[in-house]
Design goal:
Elements lengths: L1 H11 L7 H18 L10 E5 L9 E5 L5 H12 L3 E4 L5 H10 L4 E4 L5 H8 L3 E5 L9 E4 L2 E4 L2 H9 L3 E9 L5 E5 L6 H14 L19
Parallel strand pairs: 1-9, 2-5, 2-8, 3-4, 3-5
Antiparallel strand pairs: 6-7, 8-9
C-alpha cells in the first residue's frame, strides 16, 4: 500500500514511479542516521555538510516548517545545537516502545503532541519560543494550497495561529548532498502558505527521491484538481 502511494506521488510530481525503490532507500538512510545520532548533538558533525541557518528575525516566536524530506528530524537537532532545546510538534509513533525510542532520538527538544490541540503551540510562540513542524502531510481541512499544480490540504489552523501570535514562519530543509552528507539551510520568512509550499516544491524537484512521504499526498479526501 505504501509503495503504491509513493508511486502515485512520484507520478504527480513528474518523477519516475519506476524508481520508487530509491525513496525507500532514502527512508532507510534517514532512519539509520536519526537513530544513530540518537539525540547526541556531537554526532551531527560526522554527517553534516553545509549548515546555513540565518539569524532569526525579531518576532514573538519562530515556527520552523519543513517537509518529510532528506532528514527532517536532524534539522530539528541542528536547531537545538544553535538555539538550545526547541519544541517539536509530533504524533505518537505507534507502539509505546517505538514512541519512546523516537522521543529519545529527538534529543533535548521538548515535544508537543499535536493530537492535543494547538493551545500549547500558541502559548509557546507567544512566549518567544521556537517550534518546529513537518507540515507536508495531508490533513483534514477544507483549506487548500497549490502544490505541483494540485489543490491540496494543509494545516491552516497551525499556520494562522502562528501568524496571529506574531511569530515568524520559516521554511528549513535538510537535504543529502552528492557526497552523502546533509546540508541544512533556512529560507526567508513566509507570509502565506503558498510561499511555504513553493519552497517544498523547489526542494522536491531538485531530488524527488529524497521526499519520504509514505502516504498519498495528492489523493487525500477533498483534494481537487
Amino acid at each position: 500500500m505504501r509503495v503504491e502511494a509513493v508511486r502515485r506521488n512520484l507520478g504527480v510530481i513528474g518523477a519516475d514511479p519506476g524508481r520508487v525503490g530509491e525513496v525507500f532507500e532514502s527512508f532507510g538512510r534517514y532512519l539509520g542516521e536519526f537513530l544513530w545520532v540518537g539525540g547526541k548533538l556531537a554526532r551531527l558533525e560526522h554527517i553534516l555538510g553545509e549548515v546555513a541557518i540565518d539569524p532569526p528575525p525579531q518576532s514573538s516566536g519562530i515556527l520552523y516548517v519543513t517537509a518529510h524530506y532528506g532528514n527532517w528530524e536532524l534539522a530539528g537537532l541542528c536547531l537545538e545545537r544553535i538555539h538550545g532545546p526547541i519544541r517539536i510538534l509530533y504524533r505518537p509513533a505507534g507502539p509505546e516502545w517505538l514512541d519512546r525510542m523516537v522521543r529519545r532520538a529527538r534529543g533535548g527538544n521538548r515535544l508537543l503532541n499535536i493530537t492535543r490541540g494547538l493551545r500549547s503551540v500558541v502559548e509557546a510562540l507567544r512566549r518567544g519560543e521556537i517550534v518546529g513542524a513537518a507540515i507536508d502531510e495531508p490533513v483534514r481541512s477544507t483549506r487548500r494550497v497549490r502544490f505541483f499544480g494540485r489543490a491540496v490540504s494543509y494545516p491552516a489552523p497551525l499556520l494562522e495561529a502562528a501568524w496571529r501570535a506574531g511569530a515568524a514562519v520559516i521554511p528549513i530543509v535538510c537535504i543529502r548532498n552528492a557526497e552523502g552528507r546533509l546540508n541544512v539551510r533556512t529560507m526567508a520568512p513566509a507570509s502565506d502558505p503558498a510561499e511555504i509550499f513553493s519552497c517544498f516544491e523547489e526542494w522536491i524537484r531538485r531530488d524527488p527521491y529524497q521526499w519520504i512521504l509514505l502516504r498519498d499526498r495528492f489523493f487525500d479526501r477533498g483534494t481537487r484538481e
